[in-house]
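Re: the multi-chain job from yesterday

Posting the exact lines I submitted so nobody has to dig through the queue logs.
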Amino acid sequence: MVDPATGRVNRTHPQATSAMRDALRAEWTKLRTLASTYWLLVAVVVLTVGVSSAVVASSSYRTTGYQDAPKLTLTGVYLGQAVVAVLATLVVSNEYSTGMMTVTLTAIPRRLVVLGAKAAALTGLVVVAGAIAVGGSLLAGRVILPGNGFTLAHGYQLVSLGHGPTLRAAIGSVLYLVLIALLSLGIAVAIRESATSIGVVLGLLYLFPFLTQVISDPAWHRHLEQIGPMTAGLAIQATTNLQSLPISPWTGLGVLAIWAGVALVAGGILFRLRDA
Amino acid sequence: MTTPAPYRSEQPVGRDGFAQLVRAEFTKFRTVRAWVLTLGVAALLMVGFAWLTSPHVGVCVVGPESRPICSTPSVPPVPVGPGGEPVVDTFSFLRKPMIGNGSLTVEVTSLTDAVASGNGNNLGPVDQVLNPTHTDLVPWAKAGLIITQSTVQGAPYAAVMVTPSHGVRMQYDYTDDVAGLPGTVTRSSPRWLRLRRVGDVITSYDSLDATHWTKIGAANLAGLPRTVQIGLFVTSPEDNAGTTDSSASLATATFGRVRLVGDPPNSGWSGQVVGPNPESYFTLPTGRNWFKQSDGTFTVTGSGDIAPQVSGGALQGAGETTGLLASGTFGLVPVIVLATLFITSEYRRRLIRTTLIASPRRGRVLTAKAVVIGAVTFVTACIATAIAEAVSRHVLTANGNYLFPLRTLAEIRVILGTGLLFAVAAIGILGLATVLRRSAGAVATGIVLFVLPFIIGANPSSSAADWLMRVTPIAAFAVQGTLPHFAQVSDAYTWSNGYYPFGPWVGFAVLCAYAAVAFGAAMWWIQRRDV
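And the result, structure tokens for all chains:
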């Protein structure tokens, strides 16, 4: 097509920004038209709120020492993150298994743009689902906990977002889920095959909290909690007794952000270097 | 012109048996290099985790500035009972030698957590007398009569006793326990106890009024010498139940109307604290008389126990179990991926069509796959567990930890049981992946089911651990449980101490139920869906 004013060939999308916009739109269309996306997002919310409610319902204030009620309320994130990881992995590995990736890369040959668009679309979805899941969990805690003795008389405030540290835990948990999605995305781009990707992602996430339980040496225990993506990242859920944490809340989330960043960069490099 | 004869292959007709199918599936498995490698990774993870998690069993406390202070693990010599089992044998003993047959009868009028103070028999609260870390009277404090071969720890014995929460009991040779009269001892409701020796047989009786006697039980202590030690004893175990910390306890009993029928008739009583073990029990301070006598009434204070050893108390025997648990759990992650890929990659590469053209009976194909994946994971897990266990025991012993003696049969059960756990888990995941036909869901479900319960269950503020160990497939890890468990020893029988709520095969049955449902669904769906 020739632009009559300048007489030069007008390529459809000359700017990088509009290339990004189109890629984002393409990714968004792919995500939103898949039935599995919808079901996985519902699963994130249902499983997170479900596990949180179950744990809260089986807790009692009597057991040893003061407990972090908001953190207890957000336990469902342990399971919710697995579904987020599946969602994020499928964004890439599904395209490889169906051969869709060649079509995507034919349409948008700039691979980092594709990866960026995927990350952005995924982030949007996880923020929404995560916010609903976290909000639902906190609501469950607010309703159930007073019945189990978590009352003012025993030194427990009602779980509320008006409480600064609880707000930090809530927002942080949503951010945590987003970072887990990005970490999974990076690993999936590097591995390309869904079974192995999910095995690696979940293995990596659950490895550290599991190890910290079976290793009783406190020094090792502390270091593992500081470097593990899940153990460090979930420090953001703590609302009381922050001095005793192996890592402070925001630093912990930062550690997870580093994991996610490294995974995305490694995935991006491999994505550029390899044939699809 | 003749029509040419139609072409007939020279190849002999192949056999279409189940064995051929299994061979075909095994060929598929072993020719994918990444899968064989994954199996190797699983084995390496198992041995590696056993090594990594075994050494750190020392006792540690958090010191100033959250710095851990760890004592070098050292285990005091553990007495061994007549059956070869590790035992606790510490008690206050007011004794006499007795030659030949005879009997001892006594009235127990009180059992409290107070200790005798002053010169008389005034009882004061224990805190005012001394300041040990003590708890109230524990459910299994014991006071009564005992006949023992000697005062050496671990000697054969038979005893009859009152307890605060479990009524009258007859116990002998550490592991045996028979219930007598129920209820608590008070001054208004005393208990009469009698212990009689005839040859090697020791019989116990109890009564509420010294008139109507009931036989509780009889113990045959083969090889009991002619002269034995007979007398009154009091002991009180650590309070371990439900907590991770343990604290020593004391108990004091009052005995009256002691009557010994036997030889020699008129020797005096001598008090002795048998085998005080400073590492594990509150040691009765010296310079205080723990045995008091006035007007035929005896007051005895004791601390310790006469019982089999269990984990979680003085001996942290859970170390080995923990190592094996970590080994098994993380070995499962690659196995879950493998079992999933074994079927989903057929769908992804369309090989399933070829497979089903060659062998159209789908149920048989799936069964052959289950046989192959089950067999390879079973063999791998058995070998890896055997090595992991040896590594774990070696490292623990080298670090000075106490290891509970492991019977060969239990050892074989741990190894084969873990192998079966892997095989059944792999078959269940294969079924799940066949139903879903997608890798992502199957792998995520598998890992979440087998790893997450351990993490959520570890939250100390929630009672989740116990029921997660019953309702999720990890119940099968009970096949690795080897630590002794006794109803008459109150202890924290939790999985962090190496105990499982179910017995080995009941726990394994829970996993089998899950796998049966998944595999059954797969058999149903694979025959009713187009590929």
